[in-house]
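Data availability (excerpt). The following record was deposited with the supplementary files.
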Amino acid sequence: SLNQKKNCFIVRYHEWAGSKTDVDRLPLQLVEENGKFYITFQTDRFSLYAIAYEKAALDISKVQWKATAFTYDGQAKKVELEGVPEDVKVTYAGQFSATEPGTYTATATFDYDTEKYATADFSKFASVQWTITKAAENPPVVTPGAPVQDNPTQPSATTPAEPAGVVAGATLTVAGNTYQVLTVDGTKTVAITGTDKKAAKVTIPQTIQFNGEVFTVTTIAANAFKNSKNLKTVVIPKTVTTIGKNAFSGAKKLKKITIQGTAITSIGKNAFKNVNKKAVTKVPKSKKKAYKKLLKKAGYKGKVK
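Predicted structure:
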């Protein structure tokens, strides 16, 4: 083990007439730098260094939560992660299994051998919000000419039923953009998932209205504007906190990007890969350094101002 290595010694000898004499013992020191371990020992003239051990890196590029939207059918549903390296043990907690319709939050913790593997950032997989939506109800069958029964539990044939509320996972189309409902309890939120393919400029709104309900746009979904051939300009509002993987990948004409807010904490892999090489992204001054780093990791090669 590493602890044992800390207690080793180098023995220095004098040799005289074919015999060796133990002169002194030089204690080893184990030093860690960026996941690499070096054995060092001091002589009277110089220090020697040798790479003793290097931790392996865990590949977490394929880790993601499986399906997070279900429809009620009376059977228990659960969420779990996929793409987890085989040497990593995942322990689920919170509301990771349920049967009834509702919105739930599941959490996960990760355990692996820290002597073998360098530290991996599993924080973005630590929790997930998922939903079970109510099953669609079949409308009553009305036979032509048959009398309408007075049933207080069902809408009558002559009285239209009130429209059902929007549920998590539903797809909405507003002003040419498409959205997926993320949450309906408390603050109602949506992710923008796409727009008119002919659009050259897209200004993502902070909120949308649908059937009298107001939803806040907090997310740009994965692949939302991927390979958009005509998109040249995009404005991202203050309410957005997350940009999904491949969100703008391959939008080769995209040259002008404006990020209005300071709340973005996650930009997915390749979200801005292969946008125009001369692209310019304007960001709040206070977030320039942080956003520049996130954009670079997401494949962006343009300027940030």
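Summary of structural features: The longest helix spans residues 288-297.
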